[in-house]
Specification:
Spore Coat Polysaccharide Biosynthesis Protein SpsA, Chain A; 6 helices; seven-stranded mixed β-sheet; alpha/beta
Length: 200
Amino acid sequence: MTKTARQIGAVLLGAGFGRRFGSDKRLALLGDHTVAETTAATYAEAFKTVRIVLRTEDHALIKRLDRFGEIVLTDQAHRGMGLTLAAGFADVAWEWGFVGLLDMPFIAPLTLQHLQERARNSEQQIIRPRLKRSLRADHKAPHGHPMGFHRCLFHDLQALTGDEGARSVVQANPERIEDIDLSDTGIVQDIDRPEDLPAS
């Protein structure tokens, strides 16, 4: 097995349109940096390899984000998240790939490192973070991002279409999932509307 194949990488999906925000939420300021830069920097700190999927016309974002990882461009974003995700996993040779969202800037680097460590030692092929809300196991607790996929499922991700994202792959493989309980609310906290940004 090559060194590249043993790696754990991350694919950040950032080609959506975010119409409910009213403007490009990826460029909205979060402190001194944009939402997109904050998220990308966190993933770049935790992962050795990061791929960031953007639209071909995202010239401003490309300039801001290329220092954090490899930029993957798609002109198919209008056809759904499935094709965006497929573009992100095209030609990757990692052992595991984690799927994150560019509008989720609040996740902690330590959380990302913990998920990678669990993947290295897991006997399953899907790592799914779950928000821990109590000391007891809560199977109804919300799941979040990033989700990890073993390379044996990359072909399924590369074949995605439509707007379901990786949901269909997860639903087709319930016996391959390891749920990881975490107390980091950043795994479920995204930027959907301007009021989701912290008050300055």
